[in-house]
Amino acid sequence: MNKILVGLAALTFASATTASADKVGGYLLGAQYTQEQSNGTALRYGVGVPGLGLFNSGGYISIGGDISYLLPLNTTVGAAQSVVNGVDAVKAYDLYYGAQLGLGANIARVAGYTGAGFTIAPAALVGVEFNLADPFSVFLEGSVGLGVGLGGGGTSVYFAPGLRLGANYRLN
């Protein structure tokens, strides 16, 4: 029975990973894995160090992760199909939008005091991915949302804009 379950799990994983064009990528102070779905949408998982500061009386570090649901904004970029530098011009770039949920942990030491907290940050995002020579691409993405900080003696709500610039490598 265990062999059957292991075999089914392996078959499910293999079919899920080969049915889509997954990508790994990096951005300033972070890394991400994108799993494209058959309907054109994608799930992206990211992890990074969005904040780091060291100074004489202490410092802080923020470690965060996020999950994003991405949807295509364009299906064709131009009316006529042509080839530019070996790349199909219709797919020279992809526009997308989506929703993101970020979670983070913060630790700070200032003037002899140590504090810790957590953040939750839902956001809306929009981006463009430029498809270079296959399998490489670069992207620029902006997001707007609210951050909710918990810990450090209270709760705070703040405006949380974001910008992500990075590169991806298509795995299959």
From TrEMBL:
Keywords: Signal
Keyword Signal: yes
Signal peptide: 1-21
Protein name in the entry: Outer membrane protein beta-barrel domain-containing protein
